[in-house]
Amino acid sequence: MQIYVIDDREELGRKAADVIEEGLAADTKAGRSPILGLATGSSPEPLYAELRKRHAAGKLDFSELEAFALDQYVGIDPDHPESYRNVLLREVVNNDATGLKAENMYTLNESATDLEAECARYDAEILGRGGVSIQILGIGSDGHIAFNEPYGSLRSHTHIGALTRQTREDNSRFFDNDIDKVPTHCMTQGLATIMSAKQILLIATGKKKGPAIAALAAGPVTSACPASVLQFHEKVTLLIDQPAAQKLPRDILMHL
Ligand code: F6R
After folding, report:
1. Which residues, including other chains, have CB under 8 Å from residue 59's CB and lie 6 or more apart?
2. Which residue in 27, 55, 123, 144 is the catalytic one?
3. pLDDT value of residue 245
4. Are 91 and 97 in contact (CB under 8 A)?
5. Rounded to whole angstroms, what are the CA distances from 188 to 17, 133, 149, 153, 230?
6. 75-106: per-residue pLDDT in tens?
7. How far is the CA of 173 from the centre of ligand 1 (A)?
């Protein structure tokens, strides 16, 4: 696991964009079509801002790229601005943001009549391609990645899940600070699906993420912290700021 502590938001965005470009290039070099794994939430925002900047400057073009999103709320109106497809359209697609085309960005369909079949179909699409080239992740304050909440299977595939009260509280800022407006359920790539990515980039900032980052990088591998399963992945980059690094053991910090 490579850990970088970067406090400046723009610098963190530049480092994240470099890691993404290298991850995609590695698959191109290996003769495979690169596939990007997208995340939503606040954590990837500096990265997406930098990708848009590079595209506007003619230095990056995702027009040939395919991308898969991590998760989606269940029971959300497809036109709701916080539907994760709409979030990602705004961040990386609309107005030629990065060159990525809407038809090449795959998201779990929250309107499917059979949600379980939709999860199975989505999972098979990803695994059928041999996993994404590089997966962007954030982390929940309760240690979730995508919406894999604590105490689920460490080998799960794309599935329907319930959100913890903590996650709904954390995400209420996107829903008028009203927890009752936050959906109770989600569809999410499972941990086995995420682990099929060839490379992983996890971004976390802020003090609230400190305990989860310490559990991810230095705790036991346990379903109590789903992100700890990343210790079994051979190519993980953590991009965090000082407040998020605060709870890491001293001996890890000394090696950074
Ligand atoms: C979003 C996702 C979640 C978030 C996590 C952190 O697609 O899968 O795991 O990454 O909840 O959210 P932020 O970045 O908003 O703190």
Report:
1. none
2. 144
3. 97
4. yes
5. 24, 18, 10, 13, 17
6. 999 999 999 999 999 999 999 999 999 999 99
7. 12
The neighbouring-strand residues paired with 186 are 73, 161
244 in contact with ligand 1, CB cutoff 6 A: no
Residue 115: predicted pLDDT: 98
Choose the catalytic residue: 66, 110, 118, 149.
149
Ligand 1 neighbour 231 (Cβ under 6 A): no
State both tokens at 133.
């080239």
Of 240, 52, 34, nearest in space to 253 by CA: 240
Ligand 1 in contact with 144 (CB < 6 A)? yes
Burial letters for 143-170: b for 16+ Cβ neighbours within 10 Å, e otherwise?
A: bbbbbbbbebebebbbbebebbeebbeb
Q: Which of 68, 71, 220, 67 is nearest to 156 (CA)?
A: 71
81-108 burial, b at 16+ Cβ within 10 Å, e below that, comes to ebbbbbbbbebbbeeebbbbeeebbbbb
The answer to whether the pTM exceeds 0.85 is: yes
Task: Please say if 149 is a catalytic residue.
Answer: yes
Beta-carbon count within 10 A of 220 CB: 9
pLDDT of residue 253: 76
Q: How far apart are CA 187 and CA 150, in angstroms?
A: 15
Per the annotation, the verdict on 71 as an active-site residue is yes
Name residues of the chain where pLDDT drops below 50: none
Per-residue pLDDT at 252:
82
